[in-house]
Amino acid sequence: MIDLHLHTVASDGRSSPAELVDLAAAGGVSVMAVTDHDTVTSCRDVIESARGRGIDAITGIEITAVEAGRDIHMLGYFLDIDDAGLAEFLAAQRQTRVARVERIAQRLGELGMPVDFTLFLAAAATRGQSIGRPQVADAMIAGGYVTSRRDAFDRWLGAGRPAFIERAGPSPESVIEIVHAARGLISLAHPGRTCLPDSRVSQLVAAGLDALEVYHSDHDADTVSRYAALADRLGTLRSGGSDFHGDPGYPLTVGSVSLPPEHWDRLRTAAQHRH
Ligand code: AMP
Ligand code: ZN
Ligand code: FE
Ligand code: FE
């Protein structure tokens, strides 16, 4: 199994790097990438632990771009996690997240659901850790206001719900530039969930987008076929992975979605040529 979309406690996942690698080993994973939101802080530990288990691990990230008020998740792979420009960009992304979470918490207070701020601030203070709505959801569960992360998004935190706060963010084009400057490859995450028009995906490919995440736990067989065909038509590579967060509400395991080996070979070869 080749799983290139995984989260840890550095963002909104529930596994430590070592635990994630244990789960990958149990799931028969041979190649993995941790892709936390706007942070690369778990990459080194995952790569280190994976080496000890005979698993090939590469660097990865999931960056939130914003366009017309909508989030566009973009995956970076094989990037140089010590790149200074990347580090500066990610620190700003995480700072924006803290400011947004503070506003959400304030709104929840106004809605009669005060949440414990110390939880967020402790997480935000930890070097390189990123916070977001899932951690707000966890505080809401702790406060007894909702029963699960999904419940929190459905009723309060999702787009258009009462505690939704608009966010600002970089364009997809600038994210492509930043990942390329860090010598990485960039893939459009879960296009079946993001639902950009094909014409816009085509523009992003012209701007340097390297791959589409064809294989993802939210993609049914038709969606996989649709984006496999689009990737072929646009001449891009393919990526794929489970998007495992360790959420008890989701019956999802590490390695449950795999990038087919021939597409992994193409991705790796492209990265070697890039370096
Ligand atoms: P944020 O980073 O603050 O924009 O939060 C978005 C993240 O929340 C996504 O990357 C998902 O991991 C998670 N998420 C989005 N929708 C849901 C949902 N309905 N239930 C649980 N988690 C969700
Ligand atoms: Zn997430
Ligand atoms: Fe995502
Ligand atoms: Fe993800």
Please provide the count of β strands.
8
Rg from Cα: 18 Å
Looking at CATH, the homologous superfamily of the largest domain is Metal-dependent hydrolases
Bound molecule types: adenosine monophosphate, zinc ion, fe (iii) ion
Quick structural overview:
The chain is an alpha/beta fold and 275 residues long. The chain has helices at residues 17-26, 43-52, 84-110, 117-125, 133-142, 149-157, 172-181, 191-194, 198-206, 221-234, 261-274, and strands spanning 2-6, 31-34, 56-58, 60-67, 70-77, 185-188, 211-216, 237-241.
Strand-helix topology:
Elements: E1 2-6, H1 17-26, E2 31-34, H2 43-52, E3 56-58, E4 60-67, E5 70-77, H3 84-110, H4 117-125, H5 133-142, H6 149-157, H7 172-181, E6 185-188, H8 191-194, H9 198-206, E7 211-216, H10 221-234, E8 237-241, H11 261-274
Helix pairs in contact: 1-2, 3-4, 5-6
The structure holds adenosine monophosphate, zinc ion (ZN) and fe (iii) ion (2 copies).
One fe (iii) ion binds at residues 5, 7, 35, 62, 243.
Can you put this structure into words, describing what you see?
With 275 residues, this protein is α/β, with parallel strands linked by helices. The chain has 2 domains: 2-84 and 173-274, TIM Barrel, CATH 3.20.20; 89-157, DNA polymerase, domain 1 (Orthogonal Bundle). The chain has 11 helices and 8 strands. The protein has helices at residues 17-26, 43-52, 84-110, 117-125, 133-142, 149-157, 172-181, 191-194, 198-206, 221-234, 261-274, and strands at 2-6, 31-34, 56-58, 60-67, 70-77, 185-188, 211-216, 237-241. The strands form 2 sheets. It has a 5-stranded mixed β-sheet. β7 (211-216), α10 (221-234) and β8 form a beta-alpha-beta unit. α1 crosses α2 and α5 (133-142) crosses α6 (149-157). The longest helix has 27 residues, at 84-110. It is globular and about 55 Å long. It binds adenosine monophosphate, zinc ion and fe (iii) ion (2 copies). Residues 5, 7, 35, 62, 243 line the site of one fe (iii) ion (FE). The site of adenosine monophosphate has 10 residues, from α5 and α6.
